Amino acid sequence: MKKLHLGCGLVTPEDWINLDGSWNARLAKSPTLKKILGRLRIVPIEQTTILWNPKIVIHDVRKPLPFESLSIDAIYASHLLEHLYLVEAKCLLQDCFRVLSPGGVVRMVVPDLRSIALNYVNQISSIDSVKSDQLEVNPADRMNRQMLFRSATPPSGNIVYRLYSALNDFHTHKWMYDANSLIKYFRWAGFEDVEEMDFLHSRIENIQIVEQADRV
């Protein structure tokens, strides 16, 4: 089977086509440049010590996938779709449908908006406003952190580092989904037999190679 892992990050099994468009993935192909940028503090020094697979296919998923139509048997992505604006996410789903072979499977993991909202509602229901003020992290702040739309502070440092932070904005969340909305957009893109499935419960064989418990 020809299997595609979108936004693979550090999870790059050999029998998958591992694709990522992040700066870290790009710099993995130029280790000397990566070290120089780290020493100049243009790239956070801790990022330069992370070992990325230099065999990753570099591609921006906001552009059409570099594969022929009907050529991929399985597609997997974890915590990728929410980093795209909704219109970009819909285009990606359409392109996944285009490259998928007949009977192929697409599986995508995203943060659960319903779970985040229920956690917030349950927390504010269980404490009064006075106690909430005394909490180290109140329910509203916790919900904002879980949504990951923006950090609590703006980018700091020199002009080059602030530019790097702006270019790295892909890491923030743009749109959130619950099961119903994600199923809706999958069907809109042309997929059939769409359903929510539990951790490691998938029609993709050996899904445990790419699916990690701390990401679900």
Quickly list its features.
216 residues; alpha/beta; five-stranded parallel sheet; 35% helix
* Biggest sheet strand line-up: 3-2-1-4-5
Mean pLDDT: 87
Total of DSSP H or I helical runs spanning 4+ residues = 8
Q: How many whole angstroms does the radius of gyration measure?
A: 19 Å
Which structural class is indicated by helix and strand composition? alpha/beta
Uncertain residue segments = none
First and last CA, distance = 24 Å
The percent range for strand residues is: 5-15%
Q: What is the percent of helical residues?
A: 25-40%
Please tally the β strands and state the result: 5
Label the overall shape.
globular
- Strand and helix order: EEHHEEHEHHHHH
What does the secondary structure layout of this molecule look like, with pairings?
Layout: E1 3-6, E2 16-20, H1 23-27, H2 31-39, E3 57-58, E4 72-78, H3 86-99, E5 100-109, H4 113-126, H5 129-134, H6 139-147, H7 159-167, H8 179-188
Parallel strand pairs: 1-2, 1-4, 2-3, 4-5
Helix pairs in contact: 4-6
